[in-house]
Amino acid sequence: MTLLGKTAVVTGGSRGIGRAIVLKLAEMGANIVVNYTSSPQKAEEVVALVKEMGREAIAIQANVSDSDAIQKMMQEVEEKFSTIDILINNAGITKDTLLMKMKDEDWDQVMDINLKGTFNCTKAVTRKMMKQRSGKIVNLASVVGVMGNAGQANYAASKAGIIGFTKSVAKELATRGINVNAVAPGFIQTEMTDILSDEVKEAMMANIPMKQLGTPEDVANVIAFLCSDDAKYITGQVLHVDGGMVM
C-alpha cells in the first residue's frame, strides 16, 4: 500500500489516535495537514516527526465546529498542496454524565465537535474531491454509537449520527470516485485510559473477547488501508476495531 504524493488532512491530529493516524499515513508517503484546536506544541511535534520521514507537513489551528474556520483551513491546504486527497474526521470530545444530570451545553458541545465538525469538514472538501473525481474520507465513529453506553447519551448519539452521515454521504459521492467509510474503535489505550485504575481497566476488558485494550496504531492501520487503493471497492462501511467487543 502506498499514499505517495497524496495530501491528507487529519483533524485532531496532535495526540492519541489522531497522532497515530498522521504518522501512519506519512509512513505510507502522504503529505500531512495536522489540524488542532488547543495544543500547538503537540501539533508542531507531530509535524516535525512527519518531516523527519521526508514528507511535507503543516499544522493548522481551527475549531471543526466553526464552518468559516474550516473553509479557511481547506483553502490554505489547497494553496499549499494543490490537492486534498484524504480527509480523516478524527476530532472529538466527551462530556460524560447521566442524562438526568446532563446540561444543555454538555449536549451541544459534543454534538458541535463530533457530529457538526464531521459535517463541516466533509462539506468543505467535497467540491474539491468531486472535481478531482477521487478522494478518501474516513470518519471516526465508536462502538458506543452502535451499542450505547450509560452516561454517554450525547457521545453515543453523536457517533451514531456519524455512522448515518457516513452511509448517506457515501451514496452521494460514490459515482465521483470518492470513498466514504467509518471506523468504530472500542476501548483504545490513550491518555484518557492511562489514568484509569487497574480495576476499571479489568472491568472494561471483561467485555472484550480478546481481553486487551487496543492501541492507537491498531486504529491507524485500518484507516490507512481504507485510504489506499487496496480499499477502492469499499464505501459506506463501518469497520469495528474493538477486539470483538461488538459482533
Report the helical percentage: 40-55%
Q: Please give the alpha-carbon distance between the first and last residues.
A: 28 Å
What is the quaternary state of this protein?
A: single chain
Strand count, sense and barrel status of the largest sheet are: 7 strands, parallel
- What proportion of the residues form beta strands (DSSP E)? 5-15%
Order of secondary-structure elements: EHEHEHEHEHHEHHHE
Please, what is the average pLDDT? 96
Identify the strand order in the major beta sheet.
Answer: 3-2-1-4-5-6-7
The helix tally amounts to 9
Helix-strand category? alpha/beta
Shape: globular
Summarize the structure.
The protein contains nine helices and seven strands, in the order E-H-E-H-E-H-E-H-E-H-H-E-H-H-H-E. It has 247 residues and is an alpha/beta fold. Strand 2 (31-36), helix 2 (40-52) and strand 3 (57-61) form a beta-alpha-beta unit.
Verbal overview:
With 247 residues, this protein is α/β, with parallel strands linked by helices. The protein has nine helices and seven strands, in the order βαβαβαβαβααβαααβ. It has helices spanning 16-27, 40-52, 67-81, 104-132, 144-147, 153-173, 191-194, 198-205, 216-227, and strands spanning 7-10, 31-36, 57-61, 86-89, 135-140, 178-185, 238-241. Strands 3-2-1-4-5-6-7 form a seven-stranded parallel β-sheet, with helices on both faces. The longest helix is centred in the middle third of the chain and has 29 residues, at 104-132. It starts with 6 loop residues before the first strand and ends in a 6-residue tail after the last strand. The mean pLDDT is 96.
